[in-house]
Amino acid sequence: MPEHRDDLVNTVLERLNEIQDPCSVAAGTSIGLTEMGLVDAVCEEGASVATAMTWAREVARAAPGAIAGLKELLRQAIESPRTRQRARERSLFVEAWTSPDHQEAVEAFFEARPPRWGD
């Protein structure tokens, strides 16, 4: 198993030990998985595609540069050690925070309007 996967397994095991009821996590209950930060939402059986599509539509409204960065980080999570992932995450955060899209997001928020993303 690659080293970064060992790191992930160790992190999950550490989080399991921090949770009051680790059995609930092992059983896959929503409380344990959300406490671990592994699950953002739990839906009824048969509603997973609709729930995922709702989430995807929300993500699609975000700044294009932020979406590109998220995709890069998700791809990198499979292939890279966590230390390199964190370094790139920091770099992408700075890029996003100083981008014209961020400025537009702040202005749109204070003007109570949807953001108008540039090309």
Q: Can you put this structure into words, describing what you see?
A:
The chain has 119 residues and is mostly helical. The protein has a domain of 57 residues: Lyase 2-enoyl-coa Hydratase, Chain  A, domain 2, CATH 1.10.12.10. The chain contains 7 helices and no strands. The longest helix has 16 residues. It is globular and about 45 Å long. About 7% of the residues have low confidence.
Unreliable segments (pLDDT under 50, ≥5 consecutive)?
A: 20-27
Overall average pLDDT: 77
Find the structural class using helix and strand composition: mainly alpha
> Which percent range fits the helix content?
over 70%
Rg from Cα: 18 Å
The general outline is globular
N-to-C series of helices and strands: HHHHHHH
